[in-house]
Amino acid sequence: MATLLNLIALLSPFVLVIGIGMKFFKISRMPLNIRWEIYPLPSAKRERCQGSYMEEVDWIKKKHEKGLFGEFIEPFKEIFFLHRVKKFNLYGIWTWSIALHWGVWLLFLWNILILIAFVSNSMNLSKIIFLPYLSCFLGIVGTVGLILKRINNKELKLYTSGIEYFNLIFLFVIFISGLLMIYRENSTLEALLYVESVLSFNLSISEFHPFTLIHFLLFEIFLIYIPFSKFFHGPVKFFTFHKILWDDYYQKKDSPEEKKILQQLNYKVNWAGPHILPEQTWLENARNTNLHEK
């Protein structure tokens, strides 16, 4: 059992990184999305921030410049403040959602600090012991709030699948186990010893309190689970922002994008509708102007 726990602890960060890399590769190979081209773009230069560069005279002769500052700020606001949830969500989940997300961020931060403290042997974690307490408090409040919201709101309940309840309960258990672990005396020292035992591949179950073993095991399973679950929605936002919301480059002849578009136009439509020619290509459907004769 100790060997299995040690392997899970060592492999979980690698599974997380490799899994995310594989997902990014898979998504990058998918067919092109339809661009939204909703202005203003955060990447637009300040002098034309309300519209497209294609509105300018002789835009084709000019260099297409983008403001990188806006492209960094906008994802930052979304990741750490969920400003789109606060602005557009109709069900009032922002308070609980921001609490849950910050609980997760602080949980990752605390585990990173434990690793840094072990490697450097110079960080005094006792001075920032409030971080895991804050993480667990926010995580518990957020998960409970979101579960109750989804149960009690009839409309929101329709959009909530069983896996979403499972994910929230899973996070709730992680935060509860973390609270039980850090509430004990010398829990920080035990966490450092756990890291040392794992890295030296000398983990002994009898040396650690069950709460410590349970919490770290749950967190390691969480790392493995992230790339293959809905928790992966965060990294995927890179494609949503940069390839759908903000991509406004014009089409060039013989570019890789044009080749992809031509390939996709030859896909056959395998569904029916009053405006669709089944088993014909998208290009043939787009050229069909005699819908009334169908």
TrEMBL record:
Query: What's the source species for this entry?
Result: Thermodesulfovibrio yellowstonii (strain ATCC 51303 / DSM 11347 / YP87)
Ranges of residues in domain NarG-like: 125-233
User: Which Pfam families does the UniProt record give?
Assistant: Nitrate_red_gam (PF02665)
| One Gene Ontology CC term in the entry | plasma membrane
Keywords (alphabetical) are: Cell membrane, Membrane, Oxidoreductase, Transmembrane, Transmembrane helix
Tell me how this protein sits in the membrane.
Multi-pass membrane protein
The listed locations are: Cell membrane
Superkingdom is Bacteria
Q: What is this protein called?
A: NarG-like domain-containing protein
Which molecular function GO terms apply here? oxidoreductase activity
SUPFAM superfamilies registered for this protein in UniProt = Respiratory nitrate reductase 1 gamma chain
Q: Where are the bilayer-spanning segments?
A: 6-25, 93-118, 130-151, 163-183, 208-228
Q: Does the keyword GTP-binding apply?
A: no
Q: Does the keyword Membrane apply?
A: yes
